[in-house]
Amino acid sequence: MEKVTSDISGLQVQDESTADRKLLIAIDFGTTFSGVAWAQTRRPDVQSVIIQWPDATTGGLEGVSSDKVPTELRYEHGECKWGFQVDDYGLRHQWFKLDLDPSQSRGISDLSRQFPDQHALPPGYSASSEKLCTDYLAALRSHTEKVLKFKLPSSILRSTPIEYIITVPAVWSDSAQAKTRACAERAGMGKGLQIISEPEAAAIYALHAMDPHSIQVGDTFVLCDAGGGTVDLISYTVTELKPILKVAEAANGSGRLCGSTFLNRIFQKFIVNKLSLNEEWDEEVVEDAMKRFDLVTKKAFRGSANEEFIIPVPGLADDAAQSVRRGKFKMSGADVKKIFDPVVDEVVALVRGQIAATNKKVKAVLMVGGFGQNAYLRETIRASIDSGIEVMQPPNGWTAVVRGALMKGLSQLEPETERVKVASRSARKHYGTEIMSKYDSSKHRKDTSWWDDYDGELKVFDMSWFITKGSPVTEDRAFIRKYHKVWKVSDGPRQTVAQDILEYSDPDDKGAPIYKEGSAVKHLARLTADLSCIPVGELTQKMGKDGLMYYVIYYEIEMTYYSAETKYALVYKSVKYASVTAEYV
């Protein structure tokens, strides 16, 4: 991987004592909160989560202590404020990460439409999603490297290459993955950064944290990463126990916008409707009530209608009818349940759907993420699924994603540290390219055929699918397909040869279409190989059936499927033109 010159290291010069040392920083780039963890390859067993963040008042490194930092921005007087520097008052940029993938608009739940954040800037704000993500990631990187100045000797920081790994949602499109990578690169994280899906990272940590004696080959687990904004799910079946735990995807990932932030938004609507007619009502009352609900009430709620919660409403006049006395509002468990149920119901539906999608006997549902630690959510899921399925909350649930991402990144750099390996994944779409094929009356329409002078036969343009949706794919094996292009010598040599990569989501699981035209097949990327440096005399020429001479170019397409991205390469005469030149749309 490419070495990154950072703020803390200056020019990195390696000697023999540090030649095999690297510093890996994992970024859980979340919708509402983000986390950072780091480790050295020399000491992979020592893995640290950053818990120090600057706030709005001190401006130092240690203003707030938290496992994560809000994914929020505000631009004031030419300055970019981020995380805890953004106070509770005034408008702010939030949820901008989701704008990187407009294709996921179908995942926007009714909750997000019914309960918008009153302090969020509306859609169409001047800053693009790419700029917002880049600025936020740059602030996160800069802060992380400042913190590391106090964690490691300066001699180590000057001489140790830094590499990054960043997480993305399981349902992220290839285009969104490419945008995320581009934002991270512009933020100073280097071109060699790794990308991993959020639920896969969480699964790696959660399975590693489980008692190994409780896991058997054939066990299937559903991982539910319930965060502040999104809830992502994925399932794995254990395939091997030794020498390391290996798992295979049991179903495609799923997810929606139904995280715990919506509890806050529903509560805000509730408290405004309930008390806004009080003559002493103002916005500060809302903020104080929201803080209490967020920090105490929603974490303590167990689901009983008999529970009671005290919400501070300073300054409001006593009102026995509205349960307000001495600046406090008494909230019943029944009212809290009404706030929880619309959100919890959506999560339960996702969990049940993921269990059904595995078509297997599921051993346990593993709950991670901040919302995943909620007792009412846990018990509601437990009551809504088969009694034989356990519902478990692994330790460090809120930081499981960033911890798992760090474990994955370390295993890529130091394979001997790997403890949990995803042996195969389930392809989320059909991937292929359009080719010329010999006309076959049993599957092709006659009106799509045309006469090919070179081969002297009827041809059609149809699809060649090299990966089909749902098929198992691994990082260890590239899919390779051979192709060729033909054109008349009289037309002159070409400077390039290009191949379009196409995708089909197949939402109804009816199978991939034969033709690109008239279907929902989408253009994904274009791979281009440079032929300008090849002498014309070295280009292969063959005579066609029509007696004319043709150039014939033989090449291969390689496709490798990773945790959260797919890489392509076009190979011509043993030269690999890598996917970094692909043009995503």
Automatic annotation (TrEMBL):
Keywords tagged on the record: ATP-binding, Nucleotide-binding
Tagged with keyword Ribosomal protein: no
A Pfam match: HSP70
Transmembrane is among the record's keywords: no
Source organism superkingdom: Eukaryota
InterPro entries (alphabetical): ATPase_NBD, Hsp_70_fam
GO molecular function: ATP binding; ATP-dependent protein folding chaperone
Coiled-coil spans in chain: none
PANTHER family: ALPHA KINASE/ELONGATION FACTOR 2 KINASE, FAMILY CHAPERONE, PUTATIVE (AFU_ORTHOLOGUE AFUA_7G08575)-RELATED
Name of the protein described by the UniProt record: Actin-like ATPase domain-containing protein
Naturally occurring in which organism (per UniProt): Lepraria neglecta
